[in-house]
Predict the 3D structure of the following.
Amino acid sequence: MVPKKEPAERRGRGRPQSFERETALCAAMRLFWDRGYEGTSFDDLIATMGISASSFYNAFGSKEALYHEAIETYMSVAGGWFLDILNENIDTITAFRKLTTTAAMEFTRDDQPSGCMISVAATQCSPGQSRLRDLLASQRTQAEGAMAERLRVGMSAGDLPENTDIDALAAFYGSLLRGMAVQARDGASRDRLLEIARIGMRAWPAI
Amino acid sequence: MVPKKEPAERRGRGRPQSFERETALCAAMRLFWDRGYEGTSFDDLIATMGISASSFYNAFGSKEALYHEAIETYMSVAGGWFLDILNENIDTITAFRKLTTTAAMEFTRDDQPSGCMISVAATQCSPGQSRLRDLLASQRTQAEGAMAERLRVGMSAGDLPENTDIDALAAFYGSLLRGMAVQARDGASRDRLLEIARIGMRAWPAI
DNA sequence: GGATTTATGGAGCGATGGTACCAAAAAAAG
DNA sequence: CTTTTTTTGGTACCATCGCTCCATAAATCC
């Protein structure tokens, strides 16, 4: 195969990679996102990434290691809107309104797999995948923790009643988002998800 | 192996089955519930069911056919509370309050796998399993349809405002229940789920 | 008892899964 | 050009997966 032109960057010695690592990683992420870890076969991976088995192991180490990288990529890129919104300098209720409506929009983009890569992954899996299950569960717990943190800030700012059960409220919105992810996977429309988000905001505690 | 005593019932001729079909089916259901379809291996199945490969195929036909039966069993037994509550002759808001709180209870029973067998199944799977994916998605849609139907009855009875978007409200509670199922799988406590259910009822439309 | 029917045990099969290995290729360094 | 370093292509490997086949066992029917 004709190697691609060198990517401007200073290369070390040795034969240059014939593919862009980031592009291949992104392609793998989408496949994992769509099919999950166990549902994505090695052969499908290297076919989609456009590389050989040797190149795969040389560049990514193993299927599991690649999945870890895919998750990281998802969180910082495709799912970056989540933490971005929590960090915006806006009203707490505005932040959560934006969180739910943006989820509705992002979960139904036609240039990406539907739903969320993390929300519904590895909830049912073989015993051999318990490490992955724990990893995914931990990611979900972290996301919920971030929401709880934001709610705590809001409480300090007087955006929430003093007696609000912060952790329960975060768990509620966590549940809602995960359920919306399942709906999206099942083919629910953007409008339908937006309606769900709107109804979900009715549960916001009265000040 | 010593065959068990005949189960009172009139048998035809031929060697009698050495196991109770229903017991084996129930054991399979639990395994599928816990690990999903692809996460459950054939060997694990027959080991848990306590039967041989021959007996398995003789009695159930195939792994996929068994899964279908397991789903039916789940819906009529372990998940029967769902339709039962929708058919109870009670106030609409009472029915949905009972639906969400019962879900919280059922999803965290210590004598069963946590969560719901249907809610989060086959949302991510290999292309070869598209039939199962569609089946599960259809089950979820049906469950949501049953809730919508109940809401429509409630609307006729004056339990809901005239302008209520029934389908959206059903989708909201569908999302919430599915999200709760994920939470349960991730180890959320019964109290936590009950809190989520309580908060979810705040979204009920004001009369 | 013999014939018939159904279930069981056990061996094994073809396909696929993820991975390892090695000689060859393509670059930089000396 | 030679050496060194890294990537690549191809092949082969071993475990697992879902499933099949066949001889045998255990019941009923005549």
Q: What stands out?
A: Chain B has two domains: 21-73, 79-201. Confidence is low (pLDDT under 50) at residues 1-9 of chain B.
